[in-house]
Amino acid sequence: MILGGAEETRRPDRAGARLRPAPRAARPRPARLLSRGSRLTMWAGLLTGMAVYALFGLVPAIGNLVVSVTDYTALPGVPTSFTGLANYKALATTQSPGFESGLIATVVFVTGVTIVQNALALALAHRLRDEGRTAAFLRILVFLPIVLGVTIVGLIWILIFDPQQGPAASLLRAFGVHSAFFGASGWAMPLVIGVQIWQNAGFSTLVFIGGLKAIPPDIYEAASMDGIGWWRRLRQITVPLLAPSVTVNVVLALVGSFTTYNLIYVLTDGLYGTQTLGMLAFNAAFGSAEADLGYGAAVSVVLFVMTLIVALPLMGWLRHRERRLLG
Fold first, then answer.
1. Ranked by mean pLDDT, which of 18-27, 38-47, 165-174, 263-272 comes out on top?
2. Per residue in 44-53, pLDDT tens?
3. 210-217 LR contacts (CB < 8 Å, sep 24+)
4. Range of the domain at 99
5. If DSSP codes are grouped into helix, strand and coil, which group holds residue 82?
6. Cα–Cα distance, 91 to 70 (Å, whole number)
7. Looking at the domain assignment, is residue 81 inside a domain?
8. Tally of domains in the chain
């Protein structure tokens, strides 16, 4: 009886144990990829970068916009007054000449640099994508002008095209060609475009080399076995698969050439048909004793808006082209 009673008294407990819901397992704590110290370092670096960008990027941009609606000259003792949109209205009138010719020079400069630089960089990338020592050495030579400062690059080419003793003048003189080069209206703009391309083509070349190396070689081998020539391989294989590299190089070359003024300042000071809008803004603000920072700021604001109007739709079209070719 005792055993039987003990057995009977234990049965409800067993039944009750079977009816009780099983306790939920504790959720594992999510693994942290970064320690607390690493996260603090990351956020400190991020906030520092944002503060530097705001201090040296956003604040000057806002200040430039404010200056563009005034007649500020930075001359001691000269009062500053609010002029509204007077500086912007002067861009389209003869009151402050130079904007129309600067616009034409900017279009010529940007178009020439963007097209020729990318075409040259693509040709160089095809020749320099090998892994040999010679190709590596040539890649260094092509990239070297980027490392040089703008002033050094400008002085090198001024010496090369010195009308009296430069090697280019001596060579062309043998063919009966005499010119002032950077001091001649017919030569200055093509030479400035050439120097800009010479300095920046190395970066575009490296981007294209990276894009070419990402293309599987099996595709070219299959195309060769099918008897496809180099032109069709370039048009139907290389160019479509290089679409991301083309997007990067075209946008960077476009924006860079829109905003270039320092190289032009060293080479020609904006004379002889080379005064782009960037150079016009610099000359208006700092190029003479009668500094007109308000007008120069207005030109730079218009140049910024023009860059956005051209660059953003172009980048959108190039991205759409990437998806269409690679999709």
1. 263-272
2. 999 999 999 9
3. 210/245, 211/125, 211/241, 211/242, 211/244, 211/245, 212/125, 212/126, 212/129, 212/238, 212/242, 213/129, 214/241, 215/241, 215/242
4. 86-326
5. strand
6. 14
7. no
8. 1
